[in-house]
Design a protein that fits this description.
It is a single chain. The chain is of the alpha/beta class. It has two domains: 112 residues, Enolase-like, N-terminal domain (Enolase-like, domain 1), CATH 3.30.390.10; 221 residues, TIM Barrel (Alpha-Beta Barrel). Helices cover 39% and strands 15% of the residues. Strands 6, 7, 8, 9, 10, 11, 12 and 13 form an eight-stranded mixed β-sheet that branches. A hairpin with a 4-residue loop joins strand 2 and strand 3. Helix 10 runs parallel beside helix 11. The protein is globular and about 60 Å long.
């Protein structure tokens, strides 16, 4: 126990140590402008389809939302639609705000226009703005966003999302594709189901299991194609292949059906990518719909909102696995304890995205970015060459 004299000596010694000076207040920045950067690259994307829609066939490209500040820092995000809404409705509500007041910004965007737009393009627009604001914060502090948020890890598990339906793509081609991802370093692969008769899709799953072997996780995604009865039928057909998860088996608002599937199968059920905000997440949890939540980083309302969703899920012992662009989602996975695995699109990103390089994959994991902010800024030469509009 210290006596008074010893205590004073210790206190004097502590005062003599070099002091770490912390800023008394956030940097004085103001949001001043917004613009959209569109890039179009040469060639055409492959035509592909999932259970409900066909995509591809046009020129590859990339769109950024850019939020400007009076300090010259530009925050960027990769939006998921709603750009007109950003310009017309969202941005006027936050111009002049300090980006470090990110909770105030999110609340201001939501509260001033929430009643008619609890879901849809307005929330997507909010999400894109919120993510760009976090990019500003990271750049201002010269830190990656996941470290600003409070790092949990710098190494994130990933899966390769592929296995789409394509003309001329049979079992052999599907197996070759999935085996290729494993050779690239992935230890988990995702494939589409629901676009062919059940027996055909079951054969596709069997072919993938044969191709990747017993130690690689297989994820299946029905894109909301079935009702509960048919989803359960299919799940029982493929359970023997040790499926890692069964994603979006029914319509997003079929809470009862999703819960029925969850209780009928021994495959973890994933839902949430079409939900918005913590209130949509609350509904999924209260209806006991899913073993894993995969809300989209942008659609859910951005990084600020996703952290609340992850905390809510954690309180119910539910892991989260963000859907959508890995370049933004990785910061959530690296800063949250109850995240599971990250979606990547190697077949698309390796061929069609000249603005952002792929994360190198080793033994099923990628390293978190080290650049300040999100680390998604395009190469200036790429912008000069491929900017449109």
């Amino acid at each position: 126990m210290l006596d008074r004299r010893s205590f004073l000596r210790c206190a004097a010694g502590a005062l003599a140590l070099p002091q770490v000076l912390l800023p008394a207040e956030p940097p004085k920045l103001k949001i001043t402008g917004m613009r959209v950067l569109r890039l179009r690259f040469p060639g055409k994307t492959a035509r592909k389809r999932n259970a409900i829609i066909e995509s591809g066939g046009g020129p590859p490209g990339m769109t950024y939302l850019e939020v400007e500040t009076d300090g010259g820092i530009v925050g960027r995000s990769i939006p998921a639609g709603g750009l007109h809404t950003v310009e017309a409705e969202v941005f006027p509500r936050i111009v002049g705000e300090n980006p470090f007041y990110v909770e105030r910004i999110w609340d201001r965007m939501y509260r001033l226009n929430r009643k008619p737009v609890a879901k849809g393009d307005y929330i997507r627009a909010m999400g894109a703005v919120d993510i760009a604001v976090w990019d500003i914060i990271g750049k201002a502090l010269n830190l990656p966003v996941y470290q600003v948020l409070g790092a949990f890890t710098d190494r994130v598990r990933v899966y390769a999302a592929g296995g789409y339906y394509e003309d001329g793509k049979g079992l052999k081609e599907l197996a070759t594709e999935m085996d290729g991802y494993v050779r690239e370093g992935f230890r988990a692969v995702k494939m589409k189901i629901g676009g062919e008769p059940m027996q055909v899709d079951a054969e596709r799953v069997h072919a993938v299991r044969d191709a990747v072997g017993p130690d690689v996780d297989i994820l299946i995604d029905a894109n909301n194609k079935w009702n509960a009865y048919n989803a359960i039928r299919f799940g029982r057909m493929v359970e023997r292949h040790n499926i890692y998860w069964f994603e979006e088996p029914v319509e997003p608002d079929d809470f009862a059906g999703c819960a029925e599937i969850k209780h009928a199968l021994d495959i973890p059920i994933v839902a949430g990518e079409n939900e918005y905000t913590r209130w949509g997440c609350r509904d999924l949890i209260e209806h006991n719909c899913a073993d894993i939540l995969n809300l989209d980083t942008v659609i859910a309302g951005g990084i600020t909102e996703y952290r609340k969703i992850a905390a809510m899920a954690s309180a119910h012992h539910i892991p989260v696995a963000p859907h959508g662009s890995p370049f933004m989602a990785i910061h959530l996975l690296a800063s949250t304890a109850n995240t599971l695995i990250m979606e990547t699109y190697p077949a698309v990103e390796s061929k069609d995205n000249l603005a952002l390089p792929l994360f190198p994959v080793k033994d099923g994991f990628v390293q978190a970015p080290t650049k300040p902010g999100l680390g998604i800024d395009p190469d200036p030469e790429v912008v000069r060459k491929y900017k449109v509009g």
